[in-house]
Amino acid sequence: MQNKRFFLTVGFFTLLFIVTLVASTGAACVGDCPDSWKASVSPVKRTGIKEAPTKEVGRTVSTPEVNARQSDRSFALASNIPLKDRYPSLVKLADAGDGKAACTLAWSLDFCLNKHNFLDHAQVSLANVEMGGAEEQSRLRSALSSANHYDRLFADALAVCDGFSQPDEESVDRRLYQAASLGSIRSMSKFAVNPTVEHHIDISTVEIMTLYKENAKSFLTQAALAGDPEAILGVYYVQKRGYLGTKYGMFPMKLDAVTVASALTIVSESDAIREASDAPELLNKVLAAMTIEERNNMREVIGRQKQKGVRRSMEDLRQQLYKSPQDICDME
Fold it and tell me: What's the CA gap between 226 and 254, in Å, rounded?
């Protein structure tokens, strides 16, 4: 009996050691990264944003308090309710570490800030339809689809953003950073490649610029490996120019070979990115310097990206760069 108890005790502590070891080697990547690259991505610095609270594992108990929180969350995430009514609830949830709320808040603010751009995109798309010839039916259909898409977005924005005025202390980029820190791939990509940089410059803007410098490379890498089309195109431009250029300035950047090669492969295969005609040449130079292990990791990444339909997403990127907050955050 004592021997049996001894072996059970040893077995229990052996299992505990294995679980602890696995947990301590958790991946740094939020997106789909090859195993050998997960630990190479720099950890995200979360200065100035409340951390997500530790979640307790256990059985969910239905109580009036729990039901009320669930009801508040459903209200805050409801896309058919004006943002002015949901904003306080979204802020509370996002600051408490709710990733879906943080994503919804960030993209709702961006949605309202850019609503008039939707109308401009629709008008440009319609102009392309009118100028196109009869022999270009495919391009005309794409342009018409794009015009309809932006027209619907503009109508949605008018309803969602009606009566909402963004508080002076609020910032789209700060909320994008918060959502990215909580795991939103799409927010990582936009924060790194196409930050909003609102018109007023103050101490808050300087702080966000610091967060940008510290996290842009990590966010871009994770988003590209996860198959975000805007991030993939951003990697192409970094490789072409040697720097990441945004409204915050130009930042010299060198990305790892697997991230670059997988992104250039997708860009090379996409007919929609006409200005990236030099992508195959850039890809060949990267491939020539890669190790066998790096090539295997690249194929692994590309395989997952193609399963997600990234090539189709690249084609959609040019026609439909903007989507509704609900469409973006429901995909996370």
Answer: 19
Q: Coil, strand, or helix at residue 266?
A: helix
- Give me the torsion for CA of 328, 149, 231, 124, rounded to 10°: -150
Write out pLDDT tens, residues 111-125.
999 888 887 877 777
Rounded CA separation 231/211 (Å): 18
Centroid of chain to Cα 263? 15
Among residues 59, 34, 130, 53, the alpha carbon closest in space to that of 94 is found at: 53
Q: What is the DSSP letter of 225?
A: H
Are the CB atoms for 246 and 231 separated by under 8 Å?
no
Helix (H, G, I), strand (E, B) or coil at 154: helix
For 330, other C-beta atoms within 10 Å of its C-beta total 14
Rounded Cα gap, residues 112 and 161, in angstroms: 6
Exposure letters 56-72 (e unless 16+ CB within 10 A, then b): eeeeeeeeeeeeeeeee
pLDDT in tens, 23-55: 444 434 444 444 444 333 344 444 445 444 444
> How many other CB atoms are found less than 10 A from the CB of residue 323?
17
Q: What is the DSSP string of 25-80?
A: T--S-SS---GGGGGGSPPPP-TTSPPPPPPPPS-----HHHHHHHHHHHHHH-TT
The residue among 232, 236, 229 whose CA lies nearest residue 280 is: 236
Q: Which helix (H) or strand (E) holds 246?
A: strand 243-246
Write the DSSP symbol of residue 163.
Answer: T
Q: What pTM, to 2 d.p., does this model score?
A: 0.75
Residue with token string 């610095």 = 45
